[in-house]
Design brief:
By secondary structure, the protein is of the alpha/beta class. The chain has helices spanning 6-11, 19-23, 41-51, 68-72, 89-98, 118-122, 147-151, 183-193, 232-249, 254-269, 275-285, 297-321, and strands at 28-34, 54-61, 78-82, 105-107. It folds into 3 domains: 6-125, Spore Coat Polysaccharide Biosynthesis Protein SpsA, Chain A, CATH 3.90.550.10; 147-193, no CATH class; 232-321, no CATH class. Strands 3-2-1-4 form a 4-stranded parallel β-sheet. The relative contact order is 0.07.
Length: 322
């Protein structure tokens, strides 16, 4: 029997397991800042309790307007902290950490599902680190309309209907040779060449499932690019927090400088950043950053690349001299 798909695991029936109660081992507090969840929230909670000996589940309610709190309150040892009045995620996390009572704690997001061995594998590294994470595997479950296909002249197969008589002269012309992932185009063109009508209707639709197939020879998916619906106000707030949060709390490192200047670049494109006021804020908040911030992301990249190549050249000359 092949490996069960993670999607099958998401939606299969499962009995609730409370590891702390069943195994009687030392528990850990778990913190989750929450601002609404998805349809798998209950399933995710099952995976938390099944795999982690949860001493207390500390939920920071940032203003949920769905049924997330109603669902989690049906689980054992849950404490809800009202955090509607707090503005930032970082401060909500800080308040949750203050409530932790165990020597170790776990910080999770609501849209996370844990495999059965997650906790056992993670705690093996408690002697190696004081704060650590693991890699992620993304499961993409997003319904969206692909506008390009609605506007495209070419056809896309998946759910079609045809008049049998229209294919009587077409079917004999098709050999077992070159029609693969282009059959929609060829059939549409042949139909029209025979004088029949091709069209697209907008009254209904079908769901195209984008996921790895069982037993197929075609390559597996490696990367998916998602693009959120454009929201200027949301993006301005997000990039402002990104830049100011890093500058206020941290010292410059290469990847941090790149992140800050990328956020600055986006804010400048929106016309949402007064450069003089921003520089004054940096000067008052953490002036070490003044020489690292730039109006131009492109300029910053050129400077970074120049420094990198200059450094390589100097190293080469020094090594050559040895």
């Amino acid at each position: 029997m092949g490996k069960i798909s993670i999607f099958q695991e998401f939606y299969s029936e499962e009995s609730f397991v409370d590891r702390l109660k069943d195994k009687g081992e030392a528990g850990v507090d778990v913190i989750i800042p929450l601002l609404n969840t998805n349809e798998l929230w209950k399933r995710n909670l099952y995976s938390f309790y099944r795999g982690i000996p949860i001493n207390r589940l500390l939920i920071g309610d940032g203003g949920c307007t769905d049924d997330s709190i109603e669902i989690v309150l049906k689980f054992p040892r849950v404490e809800i902290l009202k955090q509607h009045h707090l503005k930032t995620l970082g401060y909500r996390i800080q308040r949750l950490i203050e409530r932790v009572e165990t020597d170790w704690f776990i910080y999770l997001h609501g849209d996370v599902y844990l495999p059965k061995n997650w906790y056992d594998e993670m705690r093996k590294h408690q002697r190696d680190y004081d704060w650590f994470e693991c890699y992620s595997r993304h499961t993409i479950l997003v319904e969206f309309i692909e506008e390009a296909r609605y506007k495209a002249e070419r056809p896309y197969s998946g759910s079609q209907m045809g008049r049998t008589a229209a294919f009587r002269n077409i079917a004999p012309k098709i050999d077992d040779d070159f029609l693969y992932r282009n059959e929609d185009i060829v059939l549409k063109e042949l139909i029209e060449l025979e004088g029949f009508r091709y069209g697209k209707v907008s009254d209904t639709y079908y769901y195209h499932e984008v996921m790895d197939k069982k037993g197929e020879t075609e390559p597996k998916f490696k990367h998916v690019k998602l693009q959120r619906e454009h929201d200027k106000e949301w993006e301005i707030n997000t990039f402002t927090m990104q830049a100011k949060g890093i500058i206020k709390y941290l010292k410059p490192k290469t990847y941090l400088v790149e992140a800050v200047n990328s956020a600055i670049d986006r804010l400048l494109r929106y016309g949402a950043l007064n450069w003089g006021e921003f520089k004054e804020w940096v000067k008052e908040t953490n002036p070490i950053w003044l020489k690292y911030i730039s109006r131009s992301k492109r300029c910053y990249r050129k400077i970074s690349a120049g420094i990198k190549y200059l450094s390589r050249g100097i190293n080469y000359l020094l090594n050559k001299g040895q």
